[in-house]
Amino acid sequence: MPGRVIEALGLAPTAAVADIGAGTGYFSVRLAKAVPSGTVYAVDVEASMLDHIRQRATGEHLANITTVLAAPDSPKLPKPVNVILIVDTYHHIPSRVAYFRGLKSSLLPGGRVAIVDFKKESPDGPPPEFRFTPEQIAGEMKQAGFVVDGRHDFLPRQLFLVFKPE
To answer: What CATH superfamily classification does 2-118+130-165 receive?
Structure first.
């Protein structure tokens, strides 16, 4: 339900958004259409994924997507953003508390971090040891200096939490 996820974010047409762990651009392309006068940073650690996103953006005439080659410990965002979206990538981030603590400087005032990831009980997704409860994610984010700003329960297999800096 990518449309509902993006709708729930309440993005302004001029918003700057980072899609961390962008992969093939599944969300990046949809975000670019939702913020036609804004910017979407499609962030990934795999250069081949970014090549794919650039081709896809060109093919769909989306000039507002900028690809960013991240490091495992930093998204390397060129500018602060209004919203950071992390879909099915949370479990791939090493040293999450330090990562998210550093991510605070990549948020504009009033900025938020939205995390969508597989529920513990989901019938698909990564192995169970790489899944988290909402309380586990909220606990790590609190250690990083964030508080829960929203929680959406409409995704059947994934949790959807929104955080803001304390």
So the answer is: Vaccinia Virus protein VP39 (3.40.50.150)
